[in-house]
Amino acid sequence: RLIPRWIHAENVKIGDFVKVPKLAQRDLDTEAGTGISYRFSDSNFLKFLGWYVAEGWCSEKKREIYLELNQTDLPIVYQLIQSFHSGAIRTRRRPELSDEVVELIFSSKKLSRWLKKNFGHLAPNKRLPEIFLNFSLIELRKFLWEYFSGDGCLHKNNQNTEFSLRFTSASEVLLRQIQLLLFNFGIAGSLDRIKREGKINKFPHGRSYAVRDLFNLEIAGNQRKKLFPNLNQRIDKIFQFQPLYP
């Protein structure tokens, strides 16, 4: 029986077995017998996935899909969902979170089950399916731009001379997967844990909740242009560039 272990590349010899990522098919159909098949080549659906991974979750019982969005992001995501979902889409305000937060909700039993199985249904268990290893740079950039729009920011260095790019998530697995994907762009991102376990946060209207540790994946300023070459450095202008990668 073969037992896999890590060795230095210089020690690999002819005849050794090497484990490599399995490249999945272009269509990821995980619901056998249902006829469901979501095409990642659909640009709008790929963008929606970026927002779902950043801001979405699925209901266990109702089979509903929720995205908690800032009001300025709402029309962008609404149009993306309309491009592949013909059913009703509703919204509701979440004043217990913030006066600026709006929850977007739509129902699809098949899509909810598919998202949960392949991307996770809550922030701590978010992940990417292995098909992302086979994506082109164009597809990865589209997905990562939408994810960055939901869960990313630009961060000034101590000298205020350059901005690094940060992805933030409660899922360490997700950011380690994105860290791996960034090598496709020649980018080596650094991953850090933000210790928050045991702390209590309070919503503006009095409700409180226990918080989890967060993780930051940071791309240095001299490398971020490899990923988003058109990204303006001014933080206050960043979300005017939403259609960067149509």
UniProtKB/TrEMBL annotation:
Listed GO MF terms: endonuclease activity
GO BP, sorted A to Z: intein-mediated protein splicing
Protein known as: DOD-type homing endonuclease domain-containing protein
InterPro entries from the UniProt entry: Homing_endonucl, INTEIN, Intein_endonuc_central, LAGLIDADG_dom
PROSITE patterns, alphabetized: INTEIN_ENDONUCLEASE
Start and end residues of each DOD-type homing endonuclease domain: 48-187
